[in-house]
UniProtKB/TrEMBL annotation:
UniProt record, GO biological process: binding of sperm to zona pellucida; cell adhesion; integrin-mediated signaling pathway; male gonad development; proteolysis
Cellular component aspect of the GO annotation: plasma membrane
Domain Disintegrin: 390-479
Organism: Macaca fascicularis
Main localization category: membrane
Ranges for domain EGF-like: 620-654
Disulphides: 337-342, 644-653
Name this protein carries in UniProt: Disintegrin and metalloproteinase domain-containing protein 18
UniProt-annotated location(s): Membrane
Keyword Membrane: yes
SUPFAM superfamilies: Blood coagulation inhibitor (disintegrin), Metalloproteases ('zincins'), catalytic domain
Length: 739
């Protein structure tokens, strides 16, 4: 009787909790399918659960998004910081799908029962253990479809970000211009403020469990990009807030950004988010779009409204992180998601069921990581060994167990080659997707261009290598190579000049300003940073760094400056009208601010700008000397190999008649060519010798015949002359006798 009473009490507690999260369905007892292989059973698990009388088989793989040094920080009543390591949580998290619905997502923690989400096409379920049950009983509930009727960002904020996207290439040219995605890692540091801590249960383990559950779901969403979202550490403001959380999200963001510069400097993270509870906010987020690797703007605010649940809150965080990595909100006329809700759709926060990133989001992200350095995402993570993510058919990325992936039904251009539903090749075709796959489902021949150069001096055209349907990785001049007749340097595939940077902001004709403008602009103590921060205060640039701080431009003609940026600063210095823009008013998609001089810009003899400081040019990373390695007939590329000039063959730029040049990295050079080069070179000259022999031989024969005939004719003439002389002598003697 006591056990039954305890069970009913627990059911009542859970049902009250579920009332805020979803609609109570029933109690189920998950059944685990055991495996004979202990190693496999730790990485892969199968559970059978029942929903509405229907059994579902859940295939799960281990999900690694907590690092080995994951810590939970809290403050005691005296304000001292303490940390704990909930090590038992490291191995609990799995993701997968229901076998009965392959187009489904399951995200579960399996320690102390099953806890998490099951997402089908248009419905979501939650599952939690009945802690007082001795029979492994769990409660299943359907997530409610609440509409909080609130936007993510302030209206003017999102409008500015959507507007400033002129750098992007057209969507239909995506497969021709973008390189293959590689695994990347994003470390997020989460702070929970006091009100949200209390709202989530006011107990450290309960709150930690919910935040880990949310980030686990966010990580599942980003597997589409091969991006692992890592919860680096969690901080709970359980007693009092460390900053004021009054005001809108944008107000809190400015205070939080200043606070984190002083207090989070020694805690590893790529971006930090403060999570705030607000019952009825005007909007629920604030961050700096496209700034994932910029230490000056690596922060965000996510508000938890009263009308949403953990699933909806995970969408808020996913959308904000999406903005950080260069995504924009979807245009419903051009963007679509097959049998799912698009994450970057304004309605996704209240939608239930499968949520994936659209074709537009995939294009945005691939462009962001292909054309701009996001080095903070490329580092090795401190995770437990990652499992191989479940491939997503229809996302346009060729993944494990896929023979092709041409996108979904609407965007697939290889329908006769690739089955877009199963991502399997049709018949005996050679390929079914990618820029190096022809319309006849055959691999493009070696030397077919697949990615054009975007800079005539610093970037190189890439070619199909004849063995893959994907284009080879991007190749460009090693950072620090001279360009523009020695007046600028190549950096990340671009010839970096202040003239080009000014023209991009203010239009054609705008140029980099003279030194006096830079000196004036970067020596002032403004409210925004010039050359860094110290104790949350902006620093003026040192004299040696003034050409690397804020960008100063001039317009040599009397045309008005043309720019969509509202915050423009004018200065009249030494007969020059110098113009600059306010920090934060226009961001590049690589996370840097258009208000500042771009990295790689020349700031002196053999000096260029890096992170707002003027540094000596150093060809880092590779032992590549153009004189010795390339024999002066090529330059070094970003792989540390020679990019040879035409008429010289890679890898060492030896002379070869008719060679197109290039490198062993650009796809136009086969490794087998290196083995047969000497033989081919000799054969080339042998062919020329044979050809020359057959051309010269007829002339030699004719010449010999002519010489022979000439000698014959000469002999004949000599004989006739001799006979004539003899006859003449005889006649003369006869005449003398007669007379």
């Amino acid at each position: 009787m006591f056990f039954l009473l305890a069970l009913l009490t627990e059911l009542g507690r859970l049902q009250a909790h579920v009332g805020s999260e979803g609609i109570f369905l029933h109690v189920t007892v998950p059944r685990k399918i055991l495996s004979n292989d202990s190693e496999v059973s730790e990485r892969k698990m199968i559970y059978i659960i029942t929903i509405d009388g229907q059994p579902y088989t859940l295939h799960l793989r281990k999900q690694s998004f907590l690092p080995q040094n994951f810590l939970v920080y809290t403050y005691n009543e005296a304000g001292s910081l303490h940390s704990e390591s909930p090590y038992f949580m490291m191995h609990c998290h799995y993701q997968g799908y229901a076998a009965e619905f392959p187009n489904s997502f399951v995200t579960l923690s399996i320690c102390s029962g099953l806890r998490g989400f099951l997402q089908f096409e248009n419905v979501s379920y939650g599952i939690e253990p009945l802690e007082s049950s001795a029979r492994f009983e769990h409660i299943i509930y359907q997530m409610k479809n609440n509409d909080p009727n609130v936007s993510i960002l302030a209206e003017n904020y999102s409008h500015i970000w959507q507007k400033d996207q002129s750098y992007k290439v057209p969507l239909n040219s995506q497969k021709k211009n973008l390189s293959k995605l590689l695994p990347q890692y994003l470390e997020i540091y989460i702070i929970v403020e006091k009100a949200l801590y209390d709202y989530m249960g006011s107990e450290m383990m309960a709150v930690t469990q919910k935040i880990v559950q949310v980030i686990g779901l966010v990580n599942t969403m980003f597997t589409q990009f091969r991006l692992t979202v890592i919860l680096s550490s969690l901080e709970l403001w359980s007693n009092e807030n460390q900053i004021s959380t009054s005001g809108d999200a944008d107000d809190i963001l400015q205070r939080f950004l200043a606070w984190k510069r002083d207090y989070l400097i020694l805690r590893p993270h790529d971006i930090a988010y403060l999570l705030v509870y607000r019952k009825h906010p005007k909007y629920v987020g604030a961050t700096f779009p496209g700034t994932i690797c910029n230490e000056s703007y690596d922060a965000g605010i996510a508000m938890y409204p009263d009308a949403i649940d953990l699933e909806g809150f995970s969408v808020i965080i996913a959308q904000l992180l999406g903005l950080n990595v260069g995504l924009t909100y979807d245009d419903i006329t051009q963007c679509f998601c097959l049998r799912a809700t698009c994450i970057m759709n304004h309605e996704a926060m209240s939608a239930r069921g499968i949520k994936i990133f659209s074709n537009c989001s995939m294009h945005d992200y691939r462009y962001f990581v292909s054309k701009f350095e996001a080095k903070c995402l490329q580092k090795l993570s401190n995770l437990q060994p990652l499992h191989q993510n479940q491939p997503v058919c229809g996302n346009g990325i060729l993944e494990s167990n896929e023979e092709c992936d041409c996108g979904n039904k609407k965007e697939c251009q290889f329908k006769k080659c690739c089955d877009y539903n199963t991502c399997k090749l049709k018949g005996s075709v050679k390929c079914g997707s990618g820029p190096c796959c022809t319309s006849k489902c055959e691999l493009s021949i070696v030397g077919t261009p697949c990615r054009k150069s975007v800079d005539p001096e610093c970037d190189f055209t890439e070619y199909c290598n004849g063995t893959s349907s994907d284009c080879v990785p991007d190749t460009y001049a090693l950072n620090g190579h001279l360009c523009k007749l020695g007046t600028a340097y190549c950096y990340n595939g671009q010839c970096q000049t202040t003239d080009n940077q000014c023209a991009k902001i203010f239009g054609k004709g705008a140029q980099g300003a003279p030194f006096a403008c830079f000196k004036e602009v970067n020596s002032l103590h403004e409210t925004s940073e010039n050359c860094g921060f110290k104790n949350s205060q902006p620093l003026p640039c040192e004299r040696k760094d003034v050409l690397c701080g804020k960008l100063a431009c001039v317009q040599p003609h009397k045309n008005a400056y043309k720019s969509d940026i509202q915050y423009t600063v004018y200065s009249y210095i030494q007969d020059h009208v110098c113009v600059s823009i306010a920090t934060g008013s226009s961001m590049r998609s690589d996370g840097t601010d258009n208000a500042y001089v771009a990295d790689g810009t020349m700031c002196g003899p053999e000096m260029y700008c890096v992170n707002k400081t003027c540094r000596k040019v150093h060809l880092t990373g590779y032992n590549c000397n153009t004189t010795t390695k390339c024999k002066g007939k090529g330059i070094c590329n970003n792989f540390g190999n020679c990019q040879c000039f035409p008429g010289h063959k890679p890898p060492d730029c030896k002379f070869q008649f008719g060679s197109p040049g290039g490198s062993i990295d650009d796809g136009n050079f086969q490794k087998s060519d290196e083995f047969y080069t000497e033989k081919g070179y000799n054969a080339h000259w042998n062919n020329w010798f044979i050809l020359s022999f057959y051309i010269v031989l007829p002339f030699f024969i004719i010449f010999t015949i002519v010489i022979f005939k000439r000698n014959e004719i000469r002999k004949l003439c000599n004989r006739e002359n001799t006979e004539y002389s003899s006859n003449s002598s005889a006649v003369s003697e006869s005449y003398d006798v007669e007379h």
